[in-house]
Amino acid sequence: MEKINTLIAKMTIEEKAALCIGASAWTTASIDRLGIPSIFVADGPHGVRRVKDENDIAEESLPATCFPTAACAAATWNTDLVFRMGQAMAEEAHAQEVDILLGPGVNIKRTPLGGRNFEYYSEDPFLSGKMAVSLIKGIQSRGVGTSLKHYAANNQEFQRHVINAKIDERTLREIYLRAFEIAVKEAKPWTVMCAYNKVNGEYCSEHHRLLQEILKQEWGFEGLVVSDWGAVHDRVKSLKGGLDLEMPGPQERRLKAVVNAVNAGEVAPGILDESVRRILEIVFKSKEAAGADSFDENSHHQLAREIAAEGIVLLKNENILPLKAGAKIAVIGNSAKEPNYQGGGSSHINPTRVDIPLDDIIKHSGKNKVTFAQGYTNQDIFDQALIDEAVGAAAFADAALLFLALPPSKESEGYDREDLNLTLQQTGLIEAVSAIQPETVVILNSGSAVTVAPWIDKVKALLQGWMMGQAGAGAIADILFGEINPSGKMAETFPVKLEDTPSYINYPGEGKEVCYGEGLYVGYRYYDAKKIHTQFPFGFGLSYTTFEYSNLQVPETFTDINGLTVLVDVTNTGAIPGKEIVQVYVHDHEASLKRPVKELKGFAKVSLEAGETKTVSIELNFRSFAYYHPDYKSWVTEDGDFDILVGASSEDIRLKAATNMTSSLKLPCILDRESTLREWITDPRGYAVLQPMLLEMQARIQEMLGGETSIGMDSLGMIIDMPLESILMFQQELLPMPADQLVDDFLQKAHAMGA
Ligand code: BGC
Q1: Whether the CB of 102 sits within 6 Å of ligand 1
Q2: What mean pLDDT comes out for the span 193-211?
Q3: Residues 514 and 165 sit within 8 Å (Cβ to Cβ)
Q4: How far is CA 36 from CA 168, 189, 440, 493, in A?
Q5: From atom 3 of ligand 1, which residue's Cα is the shortest distance away?
Q6: Parallel, antiparallel, or unpaired for β 564-572 and 613-620?
Q7: Ligand 1, pocket-test mutation among 26, 27, 41, 43, most atoms within 8 A of CB
Q8: Phi, psi at residue 567, to the nearest 5°?
Q9: What is the C-alpha R_g of the chain?
Q10: Is the distance from CB of 151 to CB of 193 less than 8 angstroms?
Q11: CB of 50 closer than 6 A to ligand 1?
Q12: How far is the CA of 205 from the centre of ligand 1 (A)?
């Protein structure tokens, strides 16, 4: 601190401004005369994309391990594994002299069409936040920094550079900011990257409320805020908004603009100094830890395989998997030879090697048991000959393995998907192959949901393989042949059809504006509320063994500040070892504002031998029960009953226990001139003030309306949601003073009662 203050005192305004803008595509400015080194940053979320030339944005990067994408990592629900992935990525970063990795991304999968969904964890903020915490802690434990991105509400690629996301405050807090909040508070990322888009009318890069007030002040973020690449429009405004570092650089004109603004008094010197301080702290921190100049490619490849195996989700299995030893297998599909293991864009890794599914299947079965047919190409064109060839291969096998992946260019940063369908060629292939070969298994490699409804009944099994990184092929083979028992579960819902999805009506917006009209009801929160049948629900995944839940223990009462511990026994009731993901959801019986039917507040992945029982313990805290109340501008709890739901998926709740919470909060009175009669009588202070005249008030209204039936109205129903002032206006002659004055008088009394 001392050292940094001394440096700041010695720096010129020009040097300070220069430090706040990149020196190249990937580096910050060094100031040799003061011994300030530069740092090197590189993408990204699932591997190191370090280019040789610091001025080149998109050249092929140095070879690095391509770990499973976030979509796959999240489906492991295994925080330890993700932590280890972070450690391995940090080793590679050290070896390539990278100081900060630009990830993880925690934007919520609002629509399955999101082009970048493969780079994000989940539709649920709690799961996203916890995954990010593990990755960040893993990377930073080895002295390499992270960049939590894209803050905030970058939930679509369509017009991402300009789109204005219109989101109400509660939805923003509970859904779109929550994962950032969890990660910032629990893992302390060195940097946070702002998003390109606008939120409620302001560019994220200039958003004082998001950057300065919420992130830095409220959450206590100590690191630096970096722009997404090219997200800054006005450097002076962004500096005032709380954006510390603009990337990429250099940007001569903008540097001058900052210098001029400081000299002209338009930017207080303290603001620039604060950004410089934040940047210098990270610069020096990044130089503290040294790592080896090489990394163990084999062990990292092995780790990538382990993560992929835990992230693969078995979605359907009618007694076909694991495959029987000695079976003749037709491997069909281009992605069995050219695996679709990562998406397009800035996260694209130049892998150290790539395993090929066909090779791994041959390794298990022997060459003479396996035939291959391409089935489709990487283009979206229909070719009957390829289907015929595949049918020929399938007909003479005991089972057909259909490897399906969208044409690679369909899943990328920068644009969204247009629909959730496989190509016509691929659906035709499934029809034809499954017609001739009843023992057909589909292995899907997609970064996000695909509609399977048209063909799912025709196949015996479905494995969701995601974009599973460079070692995914071996992981898939391990699962197909039963070397590994599948244990992944869905971190995102697969809907039956696109029209069922929460944002269907509002997405992608128009006139450069997208309204998040579905509010809190994203993912399973929406399907629950609307009772919409899903194809594969959030949290779902099969195993080759079975699990039973019993003995749920939850205290009957608790206080919000103490939270509570959920204990539940899980038994492996099958014949082989396996891992189960236990999910804890909370249902609030009653609240002043509407709440989703249930929300994920805890989970644990537990490994069980055949026949073994373990007691799983999951802690719930204040936030597990609170919701964000926009009028109080804070997270609130209310006394009342809750159900603790323990499930194997969001639609498979196995056990339920009731409990009663006492809130510790003494909320201030927020009644005002616009408060309705309902609000007055539900506030204890309002009720106390109003009580003496309530009956009279109702009787008067009844009289005025001529009794309950004359104009077909229920008088209480009529007035209950009217502002008190408007009700009183109708009884002016009975009042001791004008209605508005009387309301002011009441307000004074109610507020005087305190919290
Ligand atoms: C992406 C970021 C990425 C940056 C640098 C941007 O286009 O949105 O996620 O870190 O480029 O490659």
Answers
A1: yes
A2: 98
A3: yes
A4: 43, 22, 61, 48
A5: 346
A6: antiparallel
A7: 43
A8: -115, 135
A9: 29
A10: yes
A11: no
A12: 14
Q: Stretch 694-701: mean pLDDT, rounded?
A: 80
Q: Which residues of 629-663 are buried (b: 16+ CB within 10 A; e: fewer)?
A: beeeeebbbbeeebbbbbbbbbbebbbebebebeb
Query: What pLDDT does residue 486 have?
Result: 98
Over residues 259-268, the pLDDT tens digits come to 999 999 999 9
Pick the closest to residue 336 from 297, 390, 291, 276 (CA basis).
Answer: 390
**By alpha-carbon position, which residue is closest to atom 11 of ligand 1?**
229
- List pLDDT tens digits, range 163-188: 999 999 999 999 999 999 999 999 99
Cβ of 119 less than 6 Å from ligand 1: no
Q: Is the dihedral of CA 424, 427, 429, 435 positive or negative?
A: negative
Indicate whether 480 pLDDT > 90: yes
Which of 106, 161, 228, 412 for mutating ligand 1's site (highest number of atoms within 8 Å of CB)?
A: 228
Half-sphere exposure of 646 (CA within 13 A, CB side): 28
φ, ψ (nearest 5 deg) of residue 222: -100, -10
- Residue 318 is encoded by which pair of tokens? 């009618």
Over pLDDT 70: what percentage of the chain? Answer: 99
628 lines ligand 1 (CB under 6 A): no
Residues in Cβ contact with 44 at an 8 Å cutoff, skipping those fewer than 6 apart: 101, 102, 103, 119, 346, 347
Find out whether the beta carbon of 157 lies less than 6 Å from any atom of ligand 1: no
228 is catalytic: yes
pLDDT at 706: 65
* Cβ(617)–Cβ(609) below 8 Å: no
Burial string for 595-608 (b: 16+ CB within 10 Å, else e) reads: bbbbbbbbbbbbeb
Reported as a single tens digit per residue, the pLDDT across 608-649 is 999 999 999 999 999 999 999 999 999 999 999 999 999 999
Cα 130-563-530 angle, rounded to 5 deg: 65
Going from the Cα of 14 to the center of ligand 1, the distance in angstroms, rounded, reads 27
How far away, in angstroms, is 59 Cα from ligand 1 center?
14
Catalytic residue among 228, 244, 360, 478: 228
Longest dimension (CA), the chain: 99
Instruction: Look at residue 707 and tell me whether its pLDDT is greater than 70.
Output: no
Q: What's the whole-number mean pLDDT along residues 281-296? A: 94
Q: How many Cα atoms sit within 13 Å of 9 on the Cβ side? A: 6
Residue 282's closest CA among 204, 235, 225, 208?
225
Describe the crossing of helices 472-480 and 357-365 by its angle, rounded to 10 degrees.
40
Given pLDDT bands bounded at 50, 70 and 90, which one contains residue 561? very high
Helices 2-10 and 269-286 meet at what angle, rounded to 10? 130
- The set of residues, in sequence order, having a beta carbon less than 8 Å from that of 725 and lying 6+ positions away, is 673, 674, 739, 740, 743
- pLDDT value at residue 696: 82
Asked if the model's pLDDT at residue 709 lies above 80, the reply is no
Distance from first CA to last CA of the chain, Å, rounded? 41
Q: Is 91 exposed, middle or buried (0-12, 13-18, 19+ CB in 10 A)?
A: buried
Q: What pLDDT, on the 0 to 100 scale, is given for residue 711?
A: 62
pTM exceeding the 0.90 threshold for the entire prediction: yes
Task: Evaluate if residue 530 carries a pLDDT over 80.
Answer: yes
pLDDT of residue 325: 87
44 lines ligand 1 (CB under 6 A): yes
DSSP string of 355-381, one letter each residue: --HHHHHHHHH-GGGEEEE--S-SSS-
Res 254: pLDDT: 97
Mean pLDDT of 553-574: 98
| 88 and 297 Cβ atoms separated by less than 8 Å | no
- 232 alpha carbon to ligand 1 midpoint, in Å? 13
SS3 (DSSP) at 495: strand
Q: What is the Cα–Cα distance from 59 to 43, expressed in whole angstroms?
A: 13
- How far apart CA 231 and CA 162 sit, in angstroms, is 9
